[in-house]
Automatic annotation (TrEMBL):
The keyword Ion transport does not apply. The keyword Nucleotide-binding applies. This is Sigma-54 dependent transcriptional regulator. Residues 153-382 form the Sigma-54 factor interaction domain. The modification 4-aspartylphosphate is found at D53. It comes from Glaciecola petra. PANTHER family: ALGINATE BIOSYNTHESIS TRANSCRIPTIONAL REGULATORY PROTEIN ALGB, TRANSCRIPTIONAL REGULATORY PROTEIN. Residues 4-123 form the Response regulatory domain. Gene3D superfamilies: 1.10.8.60, 3.40.50.2300, Homeodomain-like, P-loop containing nucleotide triphosphate hydrolases. CDD domains: AAA. Keywords: ATP-binding, Nucleotide-binding, Phosphoprotein, Transcription, Transcription regulation. InterPro entries: AAA+_ATPase, AAA_lid_NorR, CheY-like_superfamily, Homeodomain-like_sf, HTH_Fis, P-loop_NTPase, Sig_transdc_resp-reg_receiver, Sigma_54_int. It holds the Pfam family HTH_8.
Length: 468
């Protein structure tokens, strides 16, 4: 590829000398003698570098015309490298030109080797930048495609099809959204889905588990702090709001924060500004807020556990994510998706589900929703002895919630004392938790992880079922 150089100088002898030199080195040269002609050529063609004099007929000493040309060239093509030519007595002007956007300068009369080296260096840098920008654009596009594929949501059921249509429409707005639904329904996944289809998708998506932030650390975690702001502040820290600037912040388990924390959060949402702890500098907030909870916020407002004014700030619109048992048509497609994902993760054959296993999956009530389905499929992948996952591999037959309880009948055969069909949802959930507690000898971290719960959510269930 022949590199094209744009030359501008009102001295025709200088132009002729430059043309002879550069053409002998294999460059294509376009030369002009006025600023207007220079800008016209820059608009018409793409150049690898521009070599321009700073002084013309209207002003032969100050370089003001050249400075204006640099600014106008940058408006036409901000990536075009500009090399300016100056006299020995005009070094200060050359420095000003570089501050204005010139890439380098050469002095008149020039040395051919120095001039050629300068131009080739700028051409190489420009080519590398162009290629890098193209690769970056392609990489961004690929990342966007992969991100959308990652957050593709199974929607075979009518309820989920309607939900996705609504989500895509709402994503284009900037309104605050509150996601409600049971644990494990995928509220965080839906939050990311909204972000990926929003106008802010190229900016950060910051997820915060509000239930895991203690009251004493709330301001530091959310707003950041300055070095020395308090005893343990050995260095400055950026808060979650600042990290999410221009993007989306997802406040998960929003109902788990205390009243004092709610007041601090409300002030930020109302005024759209905050300060780091220990700083008097106010920062403006520009982000989209999505929050989620599995709690009944209306009841919490009545009981005084949640501020109504904060609730109104969070729920410009509220979307309820249906439980898995309410979207039966999605169970098998989701199970197959998880099977494929886990198989690829562990580099083992994907396999299929037997007809009875598929029927069992559809019949189960899924108290743990999508999270539980994922865990069961992952386990079944390793329990399976062939290419086909059977009912026994799913682990339903173990009835973990019953602690594998069975009784011996009069005929000496083992008979289960209860079944999923007879137990209430709370009985099933309590039984599963008890079984996992025994399996992990009461270790709360391992037990919570095996259930797909955060520690705060796990402890809430212990209190609910009096298992503390």
């Amino acid at each position: 590829m022949i590199e094209k150089i744009l030359i501008a100088d009102d001295d025709t002898s200088v132009v002729a000398a430059l043309q002879m030199l550069l053409k002998s080195q294999g460059f294509e040269v376009v030369s002009v003698t006025t600023p207007d002609a220079l800008l016209e050529q820059a608009k018409k063609q793409q150049f690898s570098v521009a070599l321009i004099d700073l002084n013309y007929q209207n002003d032969t000493t100050s370089g003001h015309e050249g400075m204006q040309m640099i600014a106008e060239l940058k408006q036409i093509d901000e990536k075009l490298p500009i090399v300016v030519m100056t006299g020995y007595s005009s070094v200060d002007i050359a420095v000003d030109a570089m501050k204005a956007g010139a890439a380098d300068f050469v002095q008149k009369p020039w040395g051919n080797e120095r001039l050629l080296h300068t131009l080739r260096t700028q051409i190489q840098l420009h080519s590398a930048h162009v290629i890098g920008s193209k690769l970056a654009s392609e990489n961004t596009l690929l990342k966007d495609q992969l991100s959308l594929a990652k957050h593709a949501i199974v929607a075979e059921s009518e309820s989920m099809k309607a939900m996705l249509l609504q989500l895509k429409k709402l994503a284009k707005s900037d309104m605050s959204i509150l996601l409600t639904g049971e644990n494990g329904t995928g509220k965080s996944m839906f939050a990311e889905y909204i972000h990926q289809y929003s106008m802010r998708h190229k900016q950060a998506f910051i997820a915060v588990n509000m239930g895991a932030i203690t009251e004493s650390l709330f301001e530091s975690e959310m707003f950041g702090h300055m070095k020395g702001a308090f005893t343990d502040a050995k260095e400055a820290r950026i808060g979650r709001f600042e990290l999410a600037q221009a993007g989306t912040i997802f406040l998960d388990e929003i109902a788990n924060i205390g009243i004092s924390q709610q007041a601090k959060l409300l002030r930020v949402l109302e005024e759209r500004q905050f300060e780091r702890v220990g700083s008097s500098k106010t920062q403006q907030l520009d982000l989209r807020i999505i929050s989620a909870t599995n709690a009944n916020v209306d009841k919490m407002i009545v009981s005084g556990d949640f501020r109504q004014d904060l609730y109104y700030r969070l729920n410009t619109i509220t979307l309820h994510i249906p439980a898995l048992r309410e979207r039966k048509a999605d169970i098998i497609p989701l199970a197959q998706q998880f099977l494929t994902q886990h198989a690829h993760k562990y580099r083992i054959p994907v396999g299929t589900f037997s007809a009875k296993a598929a029927a069992s999956l559809e019949a189960y009530d899924w108290p743990g929703n999508i999270r539980e389905l994922s865990h069961i499929i992952e386990r079944a992948l390793f329990l399976c002895t062939g290419d086909c996952i059977e009912v026994k591999d799913l682990g339903f037959g173990l009835n973990e919630h019953q602690d594998q309880a069975s009784t011996t009948g009069a005929d000496g055969n083992s008979a289960q004392t209860s079944s999923f069909e007879q137990d209430s949802l709370d009985d099933i959930e309590k039984g599963i938790i008890v079984a996992r507690m025994k399996k992990f000898t009461g270790n709360p971290i391992k037990t919570a992880e095996s259930l797909g719960l955060s520690r705060s959510a796990y402890y809430r269930r212990l209190e609910k079922y009096n298992l503390t």
